[in-house]
Amino acid sequence: MQAITSGINLLDVCHRYSENPVVSNFSVTVPEGHSLALLGPSGCGKTTLLRLIAGLAKPYSGTIRLSETVVASKDIWVAPEDRNVGLVFQDWALFPHLSVAKNVAFGIGRSASHKNQVQDMLDLVGLAGYENRLPSTLSGGQQQRVALARALAPKPKVLLLDEPFSNLDSGLRNRVRSEVAELLSELRITSVFVTHDQEEAFALGDQVGVMKSGTLEQIGEPEEIYMRPANPWVANIAGEASFIEGMAHGQIADTAIGRIELLAEHRGPVKILLRPEQLLIEQNKDTRGTCVERVEYRGSDYRIFLRLDATVLEVSIKEPFSLQRGDYVSVSFTGCPAVAYPETTSNGIELA
Question: How far apart are CA 228 and CA 268, in angstroms?
Fold first, then answer.
């Protein structure tokens, strides 16, 4: 099957409902054949952006370009049906009274190759032999793949996915997510999908854009977002984060758990980002050190929550040992140079 490629460019896009802005001066470019994951909490404008790209809503201002074509601007408006954009909705939106084949064929014009196109799509998503089944007889993962096949059948320039895995249980979600990632990579289709799940964004996005209140806080590769978040808010959205106060002297900071090497130079009081896997603990036999507040078993690891004065540190360990609430441990930083943020006053002025 021939790869489907295009590109997306949004420049200073704004949108509002009544007088309430939901997207503000949003600019982003998704290169041809790449995927962008928009990560953020509910109500931050992620789904609105998909609607703007698809043409289901008109931007208040700004320009939207698909490939070389401007589809929305002050003077230009291209209707949704003329944009050649595929959509996969959060609830999949399958027609319950239509068979799998008829669902997939819904967006395809009647032609001599009509049945072959449907069969190609079902083969592509691993549902050959399910042509005559009704959606209600399929599992959640199979329904999701029908929705994906229907979106791909018209050979769209762009594929948009609105939290497509949120209705699946965790085990099935991981498997289907991997299947979709492999399929989109094989097709080299330009895609944008929205999610509030950090693991999902990192697994599916070549680039991850972190949104807050309709604005783009940071965009970059998953590793950059995780290891070098632009601010503490992004750090919390992009994974489990603990912060410890320190006094920076260039690229070294003195903290309650010892000296920590910093990624960049700072002077004065800073807040240092600590990821759970960057901390090492050793059990103490007396009451010196840091107190254990809680122990959680996560399957792949144990999470130890430590109370250090007014700070709670989260630590990930692989090998179990006898720790329980009230025990004391010593804790040290073992990761690569850490990200630090200058402490600020209540007015937002850096103390350093």
Answer: 20
What pairs with residue 211 in β-bridges?
A: 216
Q: What would the two tokens of residue 139 be?
A: 């599992």
Residue 198 CA neighbour count, 13 Å, CB half? 12
Q: pLDDT tens digit string along 97-151?
A: 999 999 998 877 665 457 788 888 888 888 889 999 999 999 888 888 888 888 8
What is residue 91's three-state secondary structure?
A: coil
Residue 277's alpha-carbon distances to 215, 234, 253, 341, in angstroms, are 30, 18, 19, 20
Whole-prediction pTM value?
0.86
For residue 156, the one-letter residue type is: P
Task: Tell me the two tokens of residue 307.
Answer: 């109370």
Q: Phi, psi (5° rounding) for residue 343?
A: -70, 145
The answer to whether the beta carbons of residues 121 and 151 sit under 8 Å apart is no
Tokens 């130890």 belong to residue? 304
* 13-60 pLDDT per residue, tens: 999 988 788 999 999 999 999 999 999 999 999 999 999 999 999 999
- Structural domains of the chain sorted by starting position, each given as residue range(s) with its CATH number in brackets: 8-84+156-236 (3.40.50.300), 241-342 (2.40.50.140)
CA 21, CA 45: separation in Å to the nearest integer?
A: 9
In angstroms, rounded to a whole number, what is the distance separating the alpha carbons of residues 208 and 224? 9
Closest CA to 269 of 332, 337, 349, 333: 349
